[in-house]
Amino acid sequence: MDQSIYRSHVLICTGTGCVSSGSKKIKTVLEDELAEHDLSKEIKIVETGCHGFCEKGPIMIVYPEGVFYCQLKEEDVAEIVEEHFLKGRIVDRLLFKEPISEESIPAYQDIEFYKKQRRIVLSNCGRIDPESIEEYIASGGYEAAGKAITEMTPEEVIQEVKDSGLRGRGGGGFPTGLKWDFTRKAAGDKKYIICNADEGDPGAFMDRSLLEGDPHAVIEGMIIAAYAIGADEGYVYVRAEYPLAITRLQKAIEQAEELGLLGDNLFGSDFSFDLHIKKGAGAFVCGEETALMASIEGKRGMPRPKPPFPANKGLWGKPTNINNVETFGNVPYIINEGAEAFSSVGTENSSGTKVFALTGKINNTGLVEVPMGITLREIVFDIGGGLTSGKKFKAVQTGGPSGGCITSDYLDLPIDYDSLKEIGAMMGSGGMVVMDEGTCMVDVAKFFLDFTQSESCGKCTPCREGTKRMLEILNRICEGEGKEGDIELLLELGEHIKDTALCGLGQTAPNPVLSTIKYFRNEYEAHIKDKKCPAGVCQGLAAAYVIDEETCVGCGMCAKVCPVDAISGKPKESYQIDGDICISCGACAQKCPVDAISQG
Amino acid sequence: MKSLEELRELRSKVQKDLEMRSNSERPKIIIGMGTCGIAAGARKILKAVMKEIDKRGLDVIVTQTGCIGMCEKEPLLDVKMPGKDRVTYGNLTPADVKMIIVEHVINGNVVEDLAIARFDEGGN
What we know:
- The structure holds two protein chains of two kinds.
- Chain A is of the alpha/beta class.
- Chain A has 23 helices and 19 strands.
- Chain A has five domains: 8-114, Glutaredoxin, CATH 3.40.30.10; 133-343, NADH-ubiquinone oxidoreductase 51kDa subunit (Rossmann fold), CATH 3.40.50; 353-436, Ubiquitin-like (UB roll) (Roll), CATH 3.10.20.600; 441-530, NADH-ubiquinone oxidoreductase 51kDa subunit, iron-sulphur binding domain (de novo design (two linked rop proteins), Up-down Bundle); 545-599, CATH 3.30.70.20.
- In chain A, β3 and β4 form a beta hairpin.
- Chain A starts with 7 loop residues before the first strand and ends with a strand.
- Chain B has helices at 4-15, 35-39, 42-56, 94-106, and strands at residues 28-32, 61-65, 77-80, 86-89, 115-119.
- In chain B, α3 (42-56) packs across α4.
- Chain B: Keywords: Iron, Iron-sulfur, Metal-binding.
């Protein structure tokens, strides 16, 4: 059949999450199956970026119906082809099922996970082929760049962005328009624009997903920004650990160059713009703007004191503007739809949406875009589908190592830059790690500090030495060697590091410790005074497990899994655990079919 | 890219392909493709529909459904115009498809000779 249009489009997610759960193989099998049934010319396969629902990958959406299949296996593909594509019957068992109602939901717009989202930055992610500039243009792409360059002055562009209230999505929340204005007004002819794609927070993957799913949107945002500040050259600084993002971005840049959307005299104007990719080695500190610029210049990635700010003295000493991936991703929408449309979403001082990477003990792990001002409760329980463990919600860690914890007391707090700052957490780049009662907050603080400590570049003493000492104290506490006064010492050290470290990395490094002490001081005290880890995580402190004789049915499952042979007993009689041998690993409690084992 | 107009021209050229993924109200042709339908030749009908739509450059959703019970009248094809009742046509040949598309989808007139049922979907 000779035709150019297809009766159906099958979108297969090829974001990093789905690729690692096998979506590439699914695609190959699908191609074979379609060919076998002579359907190749009727059904088009499109590889897309992240749909956000990484937990349920590999994901496939079938249009025009918009049917959402998830957790696919290779052997499922034949059934989809035979049932759905040939006979038009939706394969119910492969549909997404709501965790609570267990109801199958065919159309993805109706899944709770998507219902409360507001997709502006991610609107193309999972909907278009990121490797096709035509698809981007078909959905309105590069219209904003054309409009800005041919119909607006740079000042008008800056004013529009100022009016929109867009704030830096990298975490700091600095007004974007104001930042552009500084760079525009800085003296000098040669100026640079840089996109910071050095996402390094544990649990964060927003920037990667956007680059993979819609690279042209980031490029378009950069073109508009470059025009506004008067830059003719730009860099995307992206970590080498993001190979798919780099490949897609490279391809997108080449396609844009081919169509004359990058290069000389864009849209017939005097404005020219070239864009390069700089691969970073994946050092956390290189996400700090001055260290990032040093790295582009070919030097070791270490920060320098500010001022002078990059707006005045940046890359190779020239005025430079640095924004985060997601910030650029918002810009085309603002130019196309106007500042008012943008600021109608969100809260008064935090307009628009924010993309969060939802991870941890939650049912629907994934990427979500929500209007600012949404409550944590809505994110965790409505979009996230609640906690996996069935245990009680304890806290959400936001902003990675630079951030803090939001406790259950603040579940109904509208989330925006200022409200989070007030409670000692921060927006950060948007990583959200959900924790339940089984999480030890001292251990969490230790995890993040361990991360910053090993990522410290070592240039300034407070960060190099201070975080090391703090980590030593935390290690001691977790091993049961905590002393009176440790908490005060941690607070004192933390405050000093905050005040004296050279760059943002050092200044925020103590945050996880300070924030957990603030909200979970009793857990620290339990570790130090009672020599107990309330969550039963810290091995040195955890109480031994005991078997309830009444409940035990004598099946002996516990004895089989115990790695240290601490459990003894006879079948059909109650088993016992030797508290002196028990290492509190919890393997027995997990295996016990009648829940007879608990920590004493 | 020499001008914004050039971009817009390119856009209108490539846009058609993406419309399938939007939720806008468009005419819909639904083909009954249960085992019975396929046995009765629904695939030929489907191909004829695709060919006709492509030839005329129409903006129509083509989708399929399983057996709706009227196996005897297979192959079946439903036309659902925005805001109108869903009309089922039966006992079709590929030649009928052309007539249905021209008369019903383009001109908005139900082909009464071929229609076998109407569903009132409340104008949805």
